[in-house]
Design brief:
3-stranded antiparallel β-sheet, 5 helices, alpha+beta, 3 strands
């Protein structure tokens, strides 16, 4: 964190979007998650979640694994090691901002 405790420039914008924040929070405790389970937990539509997962995947924060269970397709979403580190850094930055505001 910079010398300025209110510096918001280091906030990870990939994580900070509301839906992506929910995805990262959920995956930090439930990785891997089935796509439908994740969609329901974060209150998204299929298309909206897919768009946000693509952005998180491009950043290297999540990976998706597509497979079949019986004859049905299933997508599992994993939080990567890079994603976990980014999540922890985001939390620490938010905690620093909150401490500065006390």
């Amino acid at each position: 964190m910079s010398e300025n405790p209110f510096d918001h420039s280091a906030i990870d914008d990939v994580i900070h979007g509301r839906l992506r924040l929910g995805v990262m929070a959920y995956l930090s405790t439930a990785s891997p998650a089935i796509f439908g389970e994740l969609r329901d937990k974060v209150g998204a539509t299929d298309g909206n979640l897919s768009t946000h997962l693509k952005k998180l995947e491009e950043a290297g924060y999540v990976k998706q694994e597509k497979r079949f269970v019986g004859k049905r397709p299933q997508t599992r979403v994993f939080l990567t090691d890079t994603g976990r580190k980014a999540w922890i850094a985001w939390i620490e930055h938010m905690q620093g901002l909150m401490r500065a505001a006390e």
